[in-house]
Specification:
The structure is a single chain. The protein is mainly alpha-helical. The chain has one domain. Helices cover 40% and strands 0% of the residues. It has four helices and no strands. It is globular and about 40 Å long. Residues 7-75 form the Insertion element IS402-like domain.
Length: 115
């Protein structure tokens, strides 16, 4: 049994309108790459540790970086949230993020913001 994450076809159909138009050369399979990006981010892996099933790690990183800079992921989340009926709640991801207790003191050391 595979423990890899794959977006479904229904999810891809819902996300497709938010993707930028391909120009020139055809893009590598969106489903494979986005599933890989989600897998990497959900599991806290380095790009170089991406399973081979998702393709080359540099492709995953490049797509994530390019689309992040373009605001594609932000627009996608805002668009999906705006489709919800009034007075309803949408949960996009159940991922919990935690900051290490020493993270807040990093700004105070060695020329940080408060130095």
């Amino acid at each position: 049994m595979s423990h890899l994450y794959w977006l479904t076809e229904a999810q891809m159909v819902r996300l497709q309108p938010y993707f930028p138009k391909a120009r020139g050369r055809a893009r590598v399979d969106d489903r494979r790459v986005l599933s890989g990006v989600i897998f990497i981010n959900r599991n806290g892996l380095r790009w170089c540790d991406a399973p081979a099933a998702y393709g080359h790690p540099k492709t995953l990183h490049n797509r994530w970086k390019r689309w992040s800079d373009m605001g594609v992921f932000t627009n996608t989340m805002a668009g999906i949230a705006s489709e919800a009926p009034d007075n309803s709640t949408i949960s996009i991801d159940a991922t919990d993020l935690k900051a290490h207790r020493t993270a807040s003191s990093l700004r105070l050391k060695k020329g940080g913001l408060l130095a």
